[in-house]
Amino acid sequence: MTITIREITPQDPAALHAWWEVGAAASAERPFPAWASWEVSQVTWSQARTDIDQVFLLAEVDGRAVGAGRLVCFLTDNTHLADLEVYVAPAERRRGIGTALLTELEERAASAGRSTYFMSVPTPVDGDGAGVPFAAAHAYPVASREETKLVDLDDTAGWAALDADVAARLGDYRIEVFEDVTPDQWVDGVCTMLGAFIGEVPAGDLDLEAANWTPERLREHEARTRDTDRAWVVGVAVAPDGSLCGFTEVGVSRQDPRLGRIGGTLVLPGHRGHALGLGMKLATHRRVRELFPDCGSIETTNADVNAWMNAINERMGYRIVERLLDVQKKVRAS
Question: Can 4-114 and 150-323 be said to share one CATH topology?
């Protein structure tokens, strides 16, 4: 069997669709619609980016698409990192296709000067799936363990009691929600939240560095979100002095709004204990449902050691649907 690997571009719709089909087949066994639709994916991948470089690789056997790989190199922060993705059609596994793709991705990452490679490996709640032994066989130990959870937006009967708890603990703090564009008076505060996120959220042994969010970077992010036809629903916690002290975000595709995704939630130290995280999440989830009645679930991923966030999610009705293991290889000192 001869495996041919070629680089493709988003400007070749037929090749990109073949790449997407491999990923869709490889993701079909996951317990929720984690793989975005073709329409959503094509728009996302075709957008010009200034914050990342990305390479798409397609593996073929006898002209059939059997594997897909993607390399993402960050250009703004964490420029030592390479984010790798490897997908193999289920019927084609254990034939060396994944290894061939990973080898090519690693070579390209090394050529780009990257010194730490990582992959996110979804696994069943009660097992390891195909990705864990593959990662271990290629010297990618687990660096962080997370849990992927979903909340059913049709089952929110218990939220009224949570509202009462938030009201009792909020004091002089308040919760605000906005969509898509950050109000000017909160731009600096949102940048502070986004920049603090990596240092405040448990990340295990992942080789991550703090991010530098500027107003210009934030506005570029907002424009990119609009250009890919996504809604960005943001909740913020406002301290008694008017400064921002908490942040949460939910992204929803306007083309396919069935599933919303939380990007991150953070309350700054010194402001915890006022139910701000719970209040922000309740407010944003309700706003998502108002804007998108067809959004039936919201997904979040948290480290299994993040007791504070896990407790909030459990109270809101989130249930664990799979584990997400971040595996990592350091190839030289960064």
Answer: yes
What's 37's DSSP letter? P
Q: State the pTM of this model.
A: 0.93
CATH fold for the domain made of 150-323: Aminopeptidase (3.40.630)
Q: Which of 160, 152, 100, 158 is nearest to 299 (CA)?
A: 152
Dihedral sign (CA 219, 223, 225, 230): positive
Tell me how far CA of residue 17 lies from CA of 11, 40, 65, 94, in angstroms: 11, 12, 10, 23
φ, ψ dihedrals at 84, nearest 5°: -110, 140
Asked whether residue 200 carries a pLDDT value surpassing 80, the answer given is no
The confidence score (pLDDT) of residue 1 equals: 84
Q: pLDDT value at position 305?
A: 87
Q: Identity (one letter) of the amino acid at 109? A: A
CATH code, residues 4-114: 3.40.630.30
> Which tokens hold the place of 271?
């402001």
Q: Give the residue extent of every domain in the chain.
A: 4-114, 150-323
CA distance 114 to 78: 10
Could you tell me the two tokens for 18? Answer: 């073949």
Q: What is the mean pLDDT of the chain?
A: 95
